[in-house]
């Protein structure tokens, strides 16, 4: 039927789709000046050890405050930066900023603290990545085993050979590799073992409804059991309630990260938190 065909064709050009591409273009253009104009900052969110209550590491999360467009979420601008290739420059800035900040925290006396940095698959497929990171670590006199890199599942799928070389080089230098958003993508168990993955970060979509969804409880339980069998650490993302925390501790989950403990905050707020922090004890509330 001609009318139906016409309508189906027309659906490719909805006003929403047009608006979306204009927005992406707008972000892409604004991003070209963002680094030199100092529009990016990093916030940091603690990852708490569920065995000792210590803050073991903080995850660096990128923030972009654009003067005309306001605060833009990384969930929106990171994909734009990946499409335009600008993620390479931005990602290098993030690495340098986070590692320099870690040097400051170490100098303030928090020598055991580690920092976790999110890497895009595009950065990961740069053969020079291990060398670049090695140089930044040297500049800041930070040991590789104070750095965690968060990769999403599937990083190794598009170019397994190159990914294997990069993963091996990073691991051999002493850097810790984590799989972010675990459970939402594809990763084979043999890959987890092969790449000597240090940590699985259980995606927050499985944590959100833990209190009333028995399927989520079964999934989280299975992930923790599997990780334990492989000798891999687990971190639950997006922990917001005491009930979620109790379940996770009960299951033997190693770390928690989420609003229950702290939102992502500025570097100065992390310093203040560390200075006054008493390792949280079992069955007590934080702070
Ligand atoms: P992610 O790495 O999985 O980071 C966790 C996200 O969950 C962060 O969102 C964090 O603010 C949020 N979150 C933490 N605790 C809770 C909680 O209890 N409840 C809820 N509802 N959310 C929580 P954010 O900062 O908006 O970042 C979104 C994503 O953007 C990140 O997900 C990461 O994939 C990406 N991203 C952020 N910074 C960078 C970066 O420097 N480089 C790259 N390549 N990606 C980044
Ligand atoms: Mg992450
Ligand atoms: Mg995540
Ligand atoms: Mg994510």
UniProtKB/TrEMBL annotation:
Residue spans crossing the bilayer: none
Protein name as it appears in the record: EAL domain-containing protein
Residue stretches making up the EAL domain: 24-278
Organism placement in taxonomy: Bacteria, Pseudomonadati, Pseudomonadota, Betaproteobacteria, Burkholderiales
């Amino acid at each position: 039927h001609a009318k139906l065909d016409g309508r189906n064709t027309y659906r490719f050009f909805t006003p929403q789709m047009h608006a979306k591409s204009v927005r992406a273009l707008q972000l892409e253009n604004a991003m070209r000046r963002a680094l030199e104009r100092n529009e990016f900052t990093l916030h940091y969110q603690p990852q708490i050890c569920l065995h000792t209550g210590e803050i073991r590491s903080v995850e660096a999360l990128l923030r972009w405050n654009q003067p005309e467009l306001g605060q833009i979420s990384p969930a929106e601008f990171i994909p734009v930066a990946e499409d335009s290739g600008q993620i390479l420059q931005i990602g290098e800035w993030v690495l340098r900023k986070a590692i320099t900040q870690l040097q400051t925290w170490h100098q303030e006396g928090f020598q055991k603290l580690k920092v976790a940095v999110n890497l895009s698959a595009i950065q990961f497929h740069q053969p020079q990545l291990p060398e670049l990171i090695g140089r930044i670590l040297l500049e800041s006199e930070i040991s590789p085993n104070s750095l965690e890199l968060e990769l999403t599942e599937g990083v190794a799928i598009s170019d397994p050979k190159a990914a294997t070389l990069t993963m091996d080089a990073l691991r051999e230098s002493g850097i810790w590799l984590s799989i972010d958003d675990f459970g939402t993508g594809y990763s084979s168990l043999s890959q987890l073992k092969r790449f000597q993955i240090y940590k699985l970060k259980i995606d927050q979509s499985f944590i959100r409804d833990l209190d009333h969804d028995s399927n989520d409880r079964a999934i989280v339980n299975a992930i923790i059991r599997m990780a334990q069998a492989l000798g891999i650490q687990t971190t639950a993302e997006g922990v917001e309630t005491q009930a979620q925390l109790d379940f996770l501790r009960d299951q033997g989950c190693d770390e928690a990260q989420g609003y229950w403990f702290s939102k992502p905050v500025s570097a100065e707020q992390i310093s203040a938190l560390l200075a006054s922090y008493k390792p949280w004890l079992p069955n007590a509330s934080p702070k």
